[in-house]
Each structure stands twice: as C-alpha cells, then as structure tokens.
Amino acid sequence: MSLSKIANKYISTSSDKQPINNLCSVARDCNDCSLGYGAAVAPSGPNNIEKTKLILIGEKPGNKEVLTGYHFVGELSRIARVLVRQILGLKTRVPDRNGNINLSEEEEVIYTNAVLCKPKKDAAITKAQYTTCSKYNNEILSKTNCPVLLCGLGAIHTYLPDSDKVSLKDVRGKIHRINGRDWICTFNPAVVQRGVFYIEGTKKPDTCFDSLVWHFTRDLLFVKSVLDKGE
C-alpha cells in the first residue's frame, strides 16, 4: 500500500476540538527567550504518563500546531502520527485534515518539539533557544523511561550529547543509550513529505536520501524492533 493510501485510510474525520491535556501547561506562558510570544504549544500525550510507550520530539511547531495546540498535526508533519499507528501499532490520536484531535481516542505516545514556539517568520533557531526550551521536555522525560524518537537535526543536536556537528548519516539506524534510555534518530516528517532532504546549511539535495519515504519507514521499523524487545 502506498504512503498516500495509508494516510488516507488512517486519517480521522473527527472535528472534535478539546483543550490540550495538561502535561506541561506552564510552557504555554513561557517567555524565557525571544521565541516566547504567547504561542507556545505544550507537549501532549496520555492522560496517565505511565502509559507512554514512545516520545516523539520534532524540531519546531508550525502554523497548524499553533492554531490547534497539538504537535505533529500539520499538513506535512501529521504523517508521523499516521505511521506510528500503522507501522508501530501504537494507540495514537490521528488528526483530521484541519489538524483537529479527538481526545476520546486512546493515546500511548507523547508528542512534542525541541522548541515549543513557532519562530516568527520562520527565523533560524539558536542553540541557546533550543537549550532554554528543553527544560519543559526534560520535565516529561524525568517521569518516564520509554524510548525517544528524535525527528530532525534540531532535536538531535539538542538531546544527543556531543552531536553539534553530526549528520543524519552518523546517527540513524542505531540505538543511542543515554542514562538508561534508548534514543533513536530519524528525519523531520515534514521533510519526508516534502520529498527533498538538503545537505545541512545548503540548498543542495542530498542524493544519499533520494527516497525519503523508504528511509523514514525503515527508521520506524527499527523503532518497532526496539519497542518489541522492551515488551
């Protein structure tokens, strides 16, 4: 089945809008750095954090995330939720095409981003801003020891030690065991949907990743093998 058919099959048609569940509500009022301007998107996941089986950390929220208050619900990034359900077999809330989440559905995944605010005019995010914002995700990480999937170099450089200069080629396809937790690295799902992965710092396509859907699916199958071993 093609990626588009999988997506169409598993996208919910619910238009139910409910407040974000309260994992880190203080984040929404944060103004600790220049990104903070009242548009933070707090992490979301199971009402009972002990039921969490996986944490996804992306790079930054987009317009749809700011409007709805949920991570990974944008036109491009929501494919991560679709494939978490389809490939990993986890219970997760899949948004409709407007980014709306049905909170009556069960959830086993925490979704968040390395920064919780959308940069104005999509400005570049500094290392200091990533570091400042990480305290909110660290609060969540301290409450569960489940594996983490880092989606995109912004998240990878923030949470993997001594990774400032690593590329995706260096860190994909392996388990990074840090403080008793498994960390796994993959692409930003929005990049996968866009279909082009640029060499960092350039606008030159990286031909090593000419089939991003295949690479992303392979990474999720690797995550599944890690989850299966942990059961």
Report on the architecture of this protein.
The protein has about 230 residues and is of the alpha/beta class. The protein has one domain: Uracil-DNA glycosylase-like domain (Uracil-DNA Glycosylase, subunit E, 3-Layer(aba) Sandwich). About 30% of the residues lie in helices and about 10% in strands. The chain is built from eight helices and five strands. The protein has helices at about 5-10, 65-70, 80-85, 125-140, 155-160, 170, 190-195, 210-230; strands spanning about 55-60, 110-115, 150, 175-180, 180-185. Strands 2-1-3-5-4 form a five-stranded mixed β-sheet, with helices on both faces. Helix 4 (about 125-140) packs across helix 5. The chain is globular and about 40 Å long. Mean pLDDT is about 80; it is low at about 1-25.
